[in-house]
Amino acid sequence: MRAWAGTIKEYFHRRRTKGRKIMTLTCDKCAHMGLGFYSDTIGPADYLEGKTTADIWIVGLNPKHDIGHVEQRTPAEFADFDPDCHPYFWDFRKVSPALYANWKSQNSRIAHTDLVKCFSPSFPAVVLVNGSPREVNSKQVVKNCSTHLLEQIRRFRPKVIICNGAPVCYTVMGFFPPNNAAQTNRATSYKYELDLGNDTKHSFWLVLSGFIGRIDDWNKRRLGVEIEGILASEGIELHSGTSSYS
Hints:
This protein is an alpha/beta fold. It has nine helices and twelve strands. The strands form four sheets. It has a five-stranded mixed β-sheet with strand order 5-3-8-10-9. A hairpin with a 4-residue loop joins strand 11 (about 240) and strand 12 (about 245). The radius of gyration is 19 Å and the shape is globular. InterPro entries: Uracil-DNA_glycosylase-like (IPR005122), Uracil-DNA_glycosylase-like_sf (IPR036895). It comes from Hymenobacter humi. This is Uracil-DNA glycosylase family protein.
């Protein structure tokens, strides 16, 4: 678990001048806690690994890297995302072979983002304050960062959002609460209608799951069957080039 030793001001100065290039801090809402989003190519609301037209989003907790990591990928590189790039994504092969095949294809309708956009090797992030490790206030970080996820949903309008892990599920359910007590107590998925203003609404499914890397294979596939049923009900086909789900 890495932590930064020094003042927050010194830390951000070092990150911004690394490699003798001034990096752009595109979100400083959590700067007082030692966190920030750095990139010269995108803003935090653009952090979507996959096509912005994707109907299906997988939402994780936060991107894993050193605190202050500079995002250097371009929008084109984000759009050309390959889930084989990291073991985190491989478990989705057991969730739905059809979904994963589509994800890897040129016809991909799937994208990934995170609830929190700031990089850190753990969450909550740990920083050193006066020589002692201290966890940042995770609730405040999530609150600060939630505006970026909400902006993404309003801009790109996914049809299905798969929440990966209990912290993501509880937080997203707080943004988009279930419609009734039955959904609150028992449902593992439900449909939500978002008011976009100007008499415009957008409906999407929320799929709730424990962290997919930690659930057993039976529950992975149970989740996949549920997702496939939702896609069928919405008429979303998953073509991979050689096969399709419909």
